[in-house]
């Protein structure tokens, strides 16, 4: 189940920078995240994830969260504030869409503290390279270890390094149906 999101189109004229071809997760070290996160936190939200995609036309997607959850008005408020800041700082060349979304039930897990909050829950992890012949793991997050996590998949424990993760999300079950 996807979360709520608010879409805002932002026009830019300079397309000099190369475009990524697929969604890519931007981690805590990216300049864009460092620019946006303080503003989002000042508004009372946590910035969970920043994604950028586009082949020609880009989309910048922000996932936000708050202790009481996130509503459409929250996404709209963050979108307007971030859009105004990006207009001034202009870190993205070319035209792009800004999407601000709640994390939904299949929330992204990016930082170590995100994983710690969800120990004992079902997760889906995709790796950039194979570990023991696999790239995809869906199972119970059992612990956070140095530089990674341990996921129990059908009774078998797999240590998955943070550095190899392309994506990680909660993978809830809906009335016995696994997602």
Description:
This protein has 179 residues and is α+β, with helices and mostly antiparallel strands. The protein has two domains: 5-101, RimP-like superfamily, N-terminal (GMP Synthetase, Chain A, domain 3, 2-Layer Sandwich), CATH 3.30.300; 112-178, SH3 type barrels (Roll), CATH 2.30.30.100. The chain has helices at residues 31-42, 72-89, 112-117, and strands spanning 5-10, 24-26, 46-55, 57-65, 96-101, 122-131, 134-145, 148-153, 156-161, 165-170, 173-174, 177-178. Strands 1-5-4-3-2 form a five-stranded mixed sheet. It is globular and about 50 Å long. The termini are close together. Residues 1-24 have low confidence and may be disordered.
Short description:
It is built from 3 helices and 12 strands; from the N terminus they run E-E-H-E-E-H-E-H-E-E-E-E-E-E-E.
Helix content: 10-25%
Broad structural category: alpha+beta
Low-confidence stretches: 1-24
- Domains counted in the coordinates: how many? 2
Widest sheet: strand ordering: 1-5-4-3-2
Number of helices: 3
Q: Assign an overall shape.
A: globular
Topology-level CATH name of the largest domain? GMP Synthetase, Chain A, domain 3
Element pattern in H and E: EEHEEHEHEEEEEEE
Q: What value does the Rg take, in angstroms?
A: 17 Å
Distance between the termini: 9 Å
């Amino acid at each position: 189940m996807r979360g709520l999101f608010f879409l805002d189109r932002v026009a830019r004229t300079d397309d000099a920078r190369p475009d990524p071809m697929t969604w890519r997760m931007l981690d805590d070290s990216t300049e864009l995240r460092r620019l946006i996160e303080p503003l989002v936190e000042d508004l009372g939200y946590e910035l969970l994830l920043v994604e950028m995609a586009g082949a020609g036309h880009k989309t910048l997607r922000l996932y936000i969260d708050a202790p009481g959850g996130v509503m459409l008005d929250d996404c709209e408020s963050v979108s307007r504030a971030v859009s105004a800041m990006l207009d001034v700082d202009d870190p993205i060349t070319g035209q792009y869409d800004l999407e601000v979304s709640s994390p939904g039930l299949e929330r992204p897990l990016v930082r170590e503290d995100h994983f710690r909050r969800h120990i004992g829950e079902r997760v889906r992890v995709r790796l950039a390279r194979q570990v023991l012949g696999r790239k995809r793991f869906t199972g119970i997050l059992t612990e956070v270890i140095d530089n990674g996590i341990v996921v129990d998949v059908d009774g078998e424990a797999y240590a998955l390094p943070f550095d190899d993760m392309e994506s990680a999300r909660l993978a809830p079950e809906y009335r016995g149906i696994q997602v």
